[in-house]
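Morning - NAP inputs below, output right after.
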Amino acid sequence: MKIAIVGIGLIGGSMAISLKESGFAHHIIGIDRSQDNLDKAIRRRLIDEDLSLQEGIAAAEIIILATPMNALKELLPKVLDLVEDQVVIDVGSAKVDILNIVRHHPRRKNYVASHPMAGTEYSGPEAAVPNLFDNRCTVLCDIEDSDEKAVELTRQLYAAMNMSLIYLDANSHDIHAAYVSHISHISSFALALTVLEKEQDEKRIFELASGGFRSTVRLAKSSPEMWVPIFEQNRDNVMDVLDEHINTLARFRSLLIKKDFKQFHQLIEKANSIRKIIDKNL
Ligand code: NAP
């Protein structure tokens, strides 16, 4: 199987490793706007060769789109214009906007919308790692609009990456993604900013930073190039979840004002129940 990956960064590069290691792909073509990234990907043996978009599409059986979401919006219709019977899969983190763009495209059936639920806070080909996707899940969206053979090939591809599959309509995906992924990034960016502002007065604050602080602000290292287009494309859902989150923060604040530590205790106990859900799914 020859696979072309457009955007050979964290996700594209890590997929290249998994697909090659599993034997699903025998040849990976890298396509990227950055020659520097392509050179790094060749040096790291993530890809076998780099080609232009047109050449890569013509040579591949599957084309994976793994660029940030703003680029994806332009790339997807362009790539569908160029394919014949190849399968096109995107890995973008928001789905409604992008699916609307190609809803009436004559090659819509060649395309399968997917979101592998795995990642790190790092970007670029240097961030690609083996086993990133092991035992995690991928969401496939609106599969009834894709050709059955294309969906089957996509299933096989994610099975080779050791991932399970969940099927959702694009709207439900975007709501769930706002809750489980997008809000935690905003929250982490906000916490990092709060502490960075304090640090201007108190130089020692980071020396005191413990494991708890580090793990809560880990996501704040994520790149704006990746995240701003996601917030742009999933704005309404992220705003709803953010409102709920702000209300919860305000609730904690009001309990502190009232010195109601009994309620505070109950809320933390309730929050602890997340352990059962997370531990069950990891
Ligand atoms: P990344 O590490 O920044 O990689 C993206 C790559 O695409 C970079 O090499 C970038 O080059 C290149 N690129 C940008 N615009 C392009 C264009 N117009 N044509 C060709 N290449 C282009 O990003 P990522 O974290 O892998 O994310 C990629 C996609 O996966 C996004 O759509 C994201 O929503 C989705 N996703 C991300 C995660 C996560 O946790 N990171 C998880 C699941 C899904 P430059 O370096 O020059 O910008």
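Note: The first helix runs from residue 10 to 21.

O.
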